[in-house]
Each structure stands twice: as structure tokens, then as C-alpha cells.
Amino acid sequence: MKYSQEANGASNKVKVYLEAVFNPEKFAERNSQEQLVKTQTDFNRAFSVISRWWRIKEMSLWEAKNHSFEIFDYGTAEWKGRRLETITGKLNIEIQNPVLGQKDNKCVLLSIMIDDEFGYFRDSDEAKCSNSSSISVWQNARNFESRWVAN
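^ thats the sequence. predicted structure below, dont judge the formating
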């Protein structure tokens, strides 16, 4: 695929943030505590809905067991007269609560514009995996041009 290298690069940028939130011990092995806090804060700002959900789960003694992020769509979108790299990915999170003896799964579609010039994630969108049509509304409003054929 023509843009698979770029799409994987964008996906990897998002995965760094996901690791800081859902596997902070692993993130901290390779980064400073200061970098961990900054990355978590940036994630919370960019994806407030999933962040709020996760904070509530954590306070209720849930643990992230596993997470994955797969490319759903990739391309460019418009931000204040500039074209920015834009990715939508499917985030799957497996969680468990040892106290309650329960497991659960969450699937969310995360969309984000990656502004490398300013080192910033912009104008995100979060949707349930069962509601992927809402992603196209977000994309159309931003003049999104896909460079990806999702599987």
C-alpha cells in the first residue's frame, strides 16, 4: 500500500500515548517520570472521553490487561489552512478487576490530527466501534482525504 509506512508512523505516535496511559510501567522503563506525566496529560487533553472513562475504572480498582490500536483510516485533513496528517484507529482495551473477579472489553475509534510542526495532537474525535458512521461526519467536516483502504 502506497501510504502504509506513513500510516504506521502515525499509528506509532498514538501508540506511545496509549502505552503511557494503559501500560505506564512499561512506558516508564524507557522514559522519565516527567515524560510519563506529560504524555498522560497530553492524552487526557486529546481524548477526554476515554480518559475520563479510564480514570473512573482505575479508581474502582480496574486494571488494563491488554490494549491494541489498529489503523482504521489514514490521510490528511484541514486545520486552519494547513493539511495535517490524520489517523483513525480502533482501540481495543481488555480490563479486569481482581477484587470483583470480572473482565471487560472496550472498543473505541480514536481520530486525531497530528501537527508535527507544533508537536501537538489536534481536534480529536472518539466514537464507539459500533458507531463508525460518526467518524465520517468528523472527517467530512475537516475536508478529510483518505490515503488508506481499511480492511
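The chain has a mean pLDDT of 94.
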